[in-house]
Amino acid sequence: MKYLLLCGAALLSSLTAPALAADQHAPQPRTSLPAPASPADAASRPIAPPVSTPEALPAGMIPPASHSASDGTTTPAQALIAKGRYIAAAADCAACHSMPGSAPYAGGYAFQLPIGTLYSSNITPDKAHGIGRWTEAQFVRAIREGVRPDGASLYPAMPFPSYARMTDADLHALYVYFMQGVQPVAQAVRPNSIPWPLSMRFPLAMWRWVFAPSPDAARKSAERPFPTPEMARGAYLVEGPGHCGACHTRRGLAMQETALTAQDGPHYLAGGAAVDGWTPPSLRGEPRTGLGAWSVADLTDFLRSGRNRRGSAFGNMDTAVHHGTQYLTHEDLTAMARYLKSLPPADATQAGWEPDPAATHALQAGGRLTPGQQLYLDNCAACHRSNGAGYAPAFPPLAGNPVVQNRSADSLIHIVLTGATLHGTAAAPSAFTMPGFGARLTDAQVATVVTFIRQAWGNMAPAVADTDVAHLRKTLTPDTMQSAPPTPVDPAPVRADAIPQRPAQDPSQETAHPAM
Question: Where does heme c 3 bind (predicted)?
Answer without folding.
Answer: 380, 383-384
